[in-house]
Design goal:
alpha/beta, seven-stranded mixed β-sheet, six-stranded mixed β-sheet, 18 strands, disordered N terminus, binds NADPH dihydro-nicotinamide-adenine-dinucleotide phosphate
């Protein structure tokens, strides 16, 4: 278990076994300041690296992540309790992210703008030192979404992983140096959010915070950044709707739905934790959903066949359990013994029940009937969040109408996937602002400079 909050030693455990897997020194204000100073010192030389050379270094890092893929996946699986197959996929994505931003370095160009009396040019300048604060659910993956564009633009970084899951970030920092990226460009500081994270947010030498985490902490980050007018990108919580119309391929929609909410044990900001089903298909869909959920393989995350592991901690398990009330339609099996296990749970609910309003961040789904297209859109939007969601229908025009009407940053039709390296990802409403991934992320890690050159005698 973790030692007490103020201990200088941090004990890292495997949530599937409750065994200790590492002991680390916990950083405080001094270590954070030292990391910021190192990043500041490294900035002038890093921004001056020729774009093609910066691209080459990022590509080397991508190759190293691929070469060490199995090792990184095992680290992530043991620290987060996530199934090894999923962890392998996440590490593969990390490599793809670095490959993508290696390719993006040389495309991040300015423009020439014709103006009276001369010419105007624009440049995309790096911001300087950026602070990257990431959560425990996809530690390496989410870190790479920020590191890729930040480094591509010529910034130096201080990365703060969540205290529960720092191991993959620490290993990545070693690979960064092995790739030839100079010392000081990437700094990893392991410590509490309220100490290390807050220091990054308040420090005058940090130009921007890229944050992923809860909406509550996101608000604090935004407020704290105001004092130094820092830029912020916030990727926050979600309560996404999986909207299933009666004309959909119900078998396919129901077979896919469990993985849209129970994947990563529901600890996913994109979890489709509300399934809205057209009333005429409700009973049929629910039967299919229960059958499909019963087939989800829950168990040892290190087994290739496992599809769902435990929750991250005992405290989080208590929080998740507090949401389960009302009409529980299905509760799955979990292993006996050690580990923070929680069963796949299906609850029939109304959209104003707590389970349908708040982010559970566990394997619990609320199933809610709707009457028609307008009702589906109303229910989908009746939430302060707007991160993700799905629409299942065979009617293409309806799919587009509903996709345009749902207030959410990343939607999928007849699919539940939200995230791709090449497409922008981020929230509407209280799910945050700014975009990660795709070429859009580059604008979050650079400022546009406009230079006017007079051509008059
Ligand atoms: P938290 O918001 O508690 O923590 C996120 C990160 O912020 C951690 O590294 C944490 O450090 C740090 N932190 C905590 N307090 C502060 C502070 N005062 N100042 C600066 N940093 C701080 O979220 P969780 O880690 O619990 O992650 C789960 C949440 O993240 C869910 O709500 C989920 O929806 C959201 N999330 C959103 C995603 C998105 O892309 N939109 C993706 C993944 C998760 P530490 O924990 O070490 O103290």
């Amino acid at each position: 278990m973790r030692l007490c909050w103020n201990s200088p030693v941090l004990t890292i455990i495997n949530p599937a076994t409750e065994e200790q897997i590492a002991r680390l020194e916990r950083a405080g204000i001094d270590e954070t300041d030292a990391a910021i100073a190192a990043a500041k010192g490294a900035f002038p030389a890093w921004r001056a690296v020729a774009p093609a050379d910066r691209a080459r270094l990022l590509r080397r890092l991508a190759n190293l992540v691929e070469e060490h893929g199995e090792e990184l996946a095992r680290i992530e699986s043991r620290n987060v309790g996530k199934p090894i197959t999923g962890a392998r996929g996440e590490v593969a994505m990390v490599a793809s992210v670095f490959h993508f931003y290696a390719g993006a370095v040389e495309t991040h160009r300015g423009a020439t703008i014709p103006v009276a009396g001369g010419e105007a040019l624009t440049f995309h300048e790096p911001l300087g030192v950026v602070g990257l604060i990431v959560p425990w659910n996809f530690p390496l993956n989410i870190a790479s979404w920020k590191l890729g564009p930040a480094l591509a633009c010529g910034n130096t970084v201080v990365l703060k992983p969540a205290e529960l899951t720092p191991l993959s970030a620490l290993r990545l920092a070693e690979l960064v140096l092995e790739a030839g990226i100079p010392e000081g460009v990437v700094n990893v500081v392991v410590g509490q959010g309220s100490v290390v994270g807050q220091r990054l947010v308040e420090h005058p030498d940090v130009a921007k915070i890229g944050f992923t985490g809860s909406t509550e902490v996101g608000r604090q980050v935004m407020a704290g950044a105001a004092a130094t007018a820092k830029r912020v990108t916030l990727e926050l919580g979600g309560k996404s709707a999986n909207v299933v119309f009666a004309d959909a391929d119900l078998e396919r929609a129901a077979a896919a739905a469990p993985y849209a909410v129970f994947d990563n044990a529901g600890q996913d900001c994109c979890a489709r934790s509300r399934i809205l089903v057209e009333r005429s298909a409700y009973d049929r869909f629910l039967d299919l959903l229960v059958a499909a959920t019963g087939r989800v393989r829950v168990g040892d995350p290190e087994e290739d066949a496992t599809e769902m592991g435990p929750l991250i901690s005992a405290a989080h398990r208590e929080t998740v359990a507090s949401f389960v009330e009302g009409e529980v339609r299905f509760e799955g099996e979990t292993p006996d013994g050690a580990g923070f296990w929680f069963p796949c749970t299906i609850v029939e609910a109304r959209n104003d029940d707590r389970i349908a309003r708040e982010e559970v961040f566990g394997p619990v789904v609320a199933v809610i009937p709707f009457d028609d297209e307008a009702d589906a859109i109303r229910l989908a939007n009746e939430t302060p969040y707007g991160l993700s969601g799905s629409i299942w229908t065979r009617d293409g025009a309806r799919a587009l109408r509903v996709a345009r009407a749902v207030e959410s940053g990343a939607l999928s039709v007849n699919s539940n996937s939200s995230v791709r390296v090449t497409t922008p990802f981020g929230g509407f409403k209280q799910s945050g602002f700014g975009r990660e991934l795709g070429l859009e992320a580059l604008s979050g890690y650079s400022d546009v400079k406009s230079v006017y050159i007079s051509t008059e005698g």
